[in-house]
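Hello again,

I reread your note about wanting to compare the complex against the isolated chains. To keep things tidy I'm splitting this into two emails, and this first one only covers the full assembly. Below are the input lines as submitted, including protein chains and any nucleic acid or small-molecule components. They are followed by the predicted structure of everything together. The single-chain runs will come separately.
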Amino acid sequence: EAQVTQNPRYLITVTGKKLTVTCSQNMNHEYMSWYRQDPGLGLRQIYYSMNVEVTDKGDVPEGYKVSRKEKRNFPLILESPSPNQTSLYFCASSLSTFVNTEAFFGQGTRLTVV
Amino acid sequence: GIQVEQSPPDLILQEGANSTLRCNFSDSVNNLQWFHQNPWGQLINLFYIPSGTKQNGRLSATTVATERYSLLYISSSQTTDSGVYFCAASNAGGTSYGKLTFGQGTILTVHP
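Full-complex prediction:
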């Protein structure tokens, strides 16, 4: 089954404790991205990657890191989480950014930083 | 970047009623998608429809790209249709590089 898989689905952590949210897609998509969803602010892009080893900042990159060492994986790293990073996070992938642009989203990761 | 506006912000229906949700966007698009966010927070793909008309069961969507709007039709609504409906768009121009811009959503509540 074609899908985007995020882990974990739920996470409660403490301020300053490094964490990684994993994202994997099995559709051989080139483009992957991370979004966060917050009440009143909607969904906003954090980082994106157009292909292996090619990543760039989205609209709200502060406090996050990403890497794209393999085409299928795009982990989101919070080196020192803070309470303002409490949010619902989504990973997404699409075949490309110019044609076949349909985006597929993971199940979401609900992160709470205390 | 592209702006996306949805209307209405809230919609309350009785089961069995029909509804139309609207999405206006400010620029030409190469991606226009409709999503349903369920009570567990998952974003469910409904339609990928940068232009034209598609139907899937009780749901259908139409995008008129030249006039920069899209419509989502829900017929014979059911309580399981409740949730938030998002429209999202992207264009290939500028520096957006595939970023989806989401509207603020329409909160649909269907009463039995």
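For quick reference: DSSP finds no helices and eleven strands in chain B.

B.
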